[in-house]
């Protein structure tokens, strides 16, 4: 009892010590508590029970008998006897009782672990941790490669950039856009029809900001601007590849606006 109480108290204390490496700390404390409760139990048996373990054994025996049936199935005639069909009143089989006890034990351990000691993060916290780790790594990559000028974006054509873009596309985009950009849930990226406009600037903006209401997330917290430029360049390199099972075109045909060239002929001679 005392050891249980101590176990609980230190559990509450631990919940307040929110160290960074909670997992290992919790494991250490748990092992410590277990050892401590064994020591306390030994002292309890020696000094309080005077070496007489009979009361403890009795509790264990009672628990054991509670879940283990004695003898075979017993037929107890019930009041109901329909055409010779009798209802049997057997004891619950031990495996069922063990399973039942196991679920209770699991529930207690689960609650202590996740809600009292918080030694393992809940899914929401785990997700937040992963997102912030990814964001941190993106910031570090961004510092290393510098920023790009979004107003003067150009589609990259060198093999290294396209390969880098392809790698990220294969990891992050194929579930919705298909292995070859043919389109699944997301639209076909290989035809000249675009919902949000083609060309490097539009495609860059779509990837960066996403279309959250349609299920395409914003990737700006995942990739650096340079990486988005590489992915967008790779997406544009898929134009006209005409993969099998291509999704029907969506949006409108995109025509690259011709760069505005100043008409100097008119000003000549004036
Ligand atoms: C969860 C599914 C999903 C994932 C993952 C996804 N997309 Fe999309 N994407 C969509 C949907 C849906 C649309 C269509 C949005 C609309 O209808 O407005 C879209 C639209 C686009 C468009 C605009 C197409 C157009 O016609 O204008 C581009 C470009 C694009 N995605 C690129 C990517 C890239 C690159 C990745 C990976 C980094 C990616 N998508 C990951 C679902 C997804």
Question: How are the secondary structure elements laid out?
Answer:
Layout: H1 2-16, H2 22-48, H3 54-67, E1 81-82, E2 85-86, H4 94-116, H5 123-145, H6 159-172, H7 174-177, E3 193-194, H8 199-209, H9 225-237, E4 252-253
Antiparallel strand pairs: 1-2, 3-4
Helix pairs in contact: 1-2, 6-9, 8-9
This protein binds heme C.
Share of residues in strands: under 5%
The N- to C-terminal Cα distance equals: 104 Å
CATH uppermost class of the largest domain: Mainly Alpha
CATH topology of the largest domain: Cytochrome Bc1 Complex, Chain D, domain 2
Q: Which architecture of the largest domain would the CATH scheme give at its second level? A: Orthogonal Bundle
Shape designation? elongated
Calculate the mean pLDDT score and round it: 84
The domain count comes to 2
Oligomeric assembly: single chain
Order of helices and strands: HHHEEHHHHEHHE
**Name of the CATH homologous superfamily of the largest domain:** Cytochrome c-like domain
Low-confidence stretches: 1-7, 9-20
- What share of residues is helical? 40-55%
Present as ligands are: heme C
Biggest sheet character: 2 strands, antiparallel
Treating each run of at least 4 consecutive H or I residues as one helix, how many helices? Answer: 9
> Pairing-aware structural class of the strands and helices?
mainly alpha
Strand order of the largest sheet: 1-2
Q: What is the total tally of β strands?
A: 4
The radius of gyration is: 34 Å
Task: Give structural notes.
Strand 1 and strand 2 form a beta hairpin. The chain has nine helices and four strands; from the N terminus they run H-H-H-E-E-H-H-H-H-E-H-H-E. The strands form two sheets. Strands 1-2 form a two-stranded antiparallel sheet. A two-stranded antiparallel sheet has the order 3-4. The N terminus is likely disordered. By secondary structure, it is mainly alpha-helical. 53% of the residues lie in helices and 3% in strands. It has two domains: 119 residues, no CATH class; 125 residues, Cytochrome c-like domain (Cytochrome Bc1 Complex, Chain D, domain 2), CATH 1.10.760.10. Heme C binds next to helix 6, helix 7, helix 8 and helix 9. The site of heme C (HEC) has 25 residues, from helix 6, helix 7, helix 8 and helix 9.
């Amino acid at each position: 009892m005392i050891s249980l109480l101590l176990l609980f108290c230190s559990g509450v204390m631990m919940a307040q010590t929110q160290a960074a490496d909670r997992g290992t700390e919790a494991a250490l404390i748990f092992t410590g508590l277990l050892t401590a409760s064994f020591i306390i139990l030994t002292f309890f048996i020696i000094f309080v029970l005077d070496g007489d373990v009979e009361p403890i054994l009795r509790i264990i025996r009672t628990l054991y008998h509670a879940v283990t049936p004695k003898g075979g199935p017993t037929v107890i005639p019930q009041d109901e006897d329909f055409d010779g069909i009798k209802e049997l009143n057997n004891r619950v089989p031990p495996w069922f009782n063990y399973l039942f006890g196991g679920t209770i034990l699991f529930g207690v351990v689960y609650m202590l672990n996740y809600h009292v000691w918080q030694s393992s993060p809940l899914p929401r916290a785990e997700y937040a941790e992963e997102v912030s780790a990814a964001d941190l790594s993106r910031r570090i990559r961004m510092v290393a490669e510098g920023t790009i000028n979004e107003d003067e974006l150009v589609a990259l054509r060198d093999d290294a950039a396209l390969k880098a873009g392809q790698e990220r596309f294969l990891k992050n985009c194929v579930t919705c856009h298909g292995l070859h950009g043919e389109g699944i849930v997301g639209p076909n990226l290989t035809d000249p029809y675009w919902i949000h406009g083609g060309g490097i600037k539009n495609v860059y903006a779509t990837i960066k900001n996403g279309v959250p209401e349609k299920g395409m997330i914003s990737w700006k917290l995942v990739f650096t601007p340079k990486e988005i430029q590489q992915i967008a360049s790779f997406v544009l390199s898929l134009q006209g590849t005409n993969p099998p099972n291509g999704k029907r075109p969506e949006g409108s045909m995109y025509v690259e606006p011709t760069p505005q060239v100043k008409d100097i002929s008119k000003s000549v001679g004036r």
